[in-house]
Amino acid sequence: MYRDIQQLANAIDTIIAYIDEERRFQFVNHAYEMFVDKPAVDILGKRVDEILDSESAEYVKPLHQRALNGEHVEYEQTITLANGRKRILNTRYVPMHDADSGKVSGFYAIIDDITSYISATDLMRTVHKIINQPGKKRKGKVISQLLELGNSYLQTEIGLVSEVDGNDYIVKYSDAIGQPIEPETHFPLGNTYCSVTLAEERVIAVTEAAKSAFFKGHPCYQTFELETYLGVPLTIDGELWGTLSFSSAAQRELPFDALEIELISLVASAIETILAEKRRLDELRQLAYFDPLTELSNRTSAIYQINERLKKQRQQGTPFYVAIADADHFKTINDRYGHQAGDRVLRKLAQVLKANIREHDLAARLGGEEFVLLIDSDNVAVAHKALERCRQQVHDNPVTLDDGTEIKYSISVGMTRTADKDEFLQIYQRADQALYRAKGAGRNCIVSAD
Question: Where do the PAS domain residues begin and end (predicted)?
Fold first, then answer.
């Protein structure tokens, strides 16, 4: 009879164990062995607190006592094994009575591992929120949350969303257990498993990379020894953009099933939606705040940034310098060489201005051939030196057209120091008046309004 029960218990997927009055294991089926990753010989006779971690052992102790008192017990809880593995379990305790005395001699633990179901539900709920919530709430943190949920669902250690630019693999978002992988970390594409995912243009899933036809001897395996990998191509506006991937050094217990692959593909679709929306917002922001010809900040953005700096000045008492730079004889350049040549002059001028100020300073195009510079210093010598460097570099670097024609040009600059109660218009008017005087002084020079 016992052998028949043993065979029956081993034939089903439900996890079963018999625990006696001393809370020691007297019977486990194959599913329980797989659950704790130990053979029966290493489980039988052991106490429950030798199989579970201390916190989980304390949690189930009063539940065991209820079962030993003859009560049928059922509960759902995340349980951690002694090896640190966490699972969400639906558990029932069925008391067994001694045939002679009628006393409870122990109980059967009948366990369903519902981790995948719960994780899948959480994942689908989060994806649903992403698809239906207002766009303004879709931020990078949502992608990070999806990566965290994906790692939990698949029992992997590393979740990445990465962009591919030529042979450059660039991590954009990550969730990694242990050693973090920072955004903007770059790897050669060929050294990543994702190179295979992109080449195949489909989902790639392996649980033993060392024996995989795709990854045996792969540079990524040789460097990181990642055994488990699931990668999904990400497409934006019909073009391959990068990948979503989950991986870990340990071999996964079971191969990825169709449900897991389908759910992670759904996650990939949600991430594609977020990334596509971000791209559109970035394009709109570019149009709204940047000059398309020179790629510098435009008038709207320049006024905003100067006003923000004025707020700081009012709070901290830190004035700064603003200058207006204008290309000399620009109408003549347009008339003589054409508007395309004039555009090339403006682009070159913008490059020179940006290259010769500090990163926290500002160069912007106000319109036409007029530019504004914010030099974030209240030291006149520092400001004048930066502007003189710009003026000299413009003078020394003519624009060369396709036919070899050189266009030599120069700039005139009017500068002013901000005052306590200044508004942008007052600053602009002072700098513009100084610019007018620079033009009158023969051009190709700097004049201060102060």
Answer: 1-71
Two domains, one topology: 2-113 and 118-287: yes
Backbone angles phi, psi at 228, to 5 degrees: -105, 135
Q: Which amino acid appears at position 166 of this protein?
A: G
pLDDT score of 5: 66
Give the fold, CATH level 3, of 2-113.
Beta-Lactamase (3.30.450)
Q: What number of CA atoms fall less than 13 Å from residue 159's CA on the CB side?
A: 19
* Domain spans of the chain, in order of start: 2-113, 118-287, 299-448
Residues whose CB is less than 8 angstroms from the CB of residue 36 and which lie 6 or more positions away in sequence, other chains included: 43, 51, 81, 83
Alpha helices for 155-257 (secondary structure H): 194-200, 219-224
Q: How far apart are CA 196 and CA 327, in angstroms?
A: 52
**CA-based nearest residue to 8, from 24, 25, 31:** 31
Is 299-448 in CATH node 3.30.70.270?
yes
Beta bridge partners of 382: none
Least confident of 126-140, 319-333, 422-436: 126-140
User: What does DSSP assign to residue 209?
Assistant: G
Q: Which of 269, 257, 192, 262 is nearest to 233 (CA)?
A: 269
Q: How far is CA 365 from the centre of its chain?
A: 32
> Is the entire prediction scored with pTM above 0.70?
no
Residues 185 and 169: their CA atoms lie apart, in Å, by 8
CATH for the stretch 118-287: 3.30.450.40
Which residue is it, tokens 């600053």? Answer: 427
The pLDDT tens digits of the residues spanning 122-155 come to 778 877 776 666 555 556 778 988 898 899 888 8
Digit-coded pLDDT (tens) for 327-386: 999 999 999 999 999 999 999 999 999 999 999 999 999 999 999 999 999 999 999 999
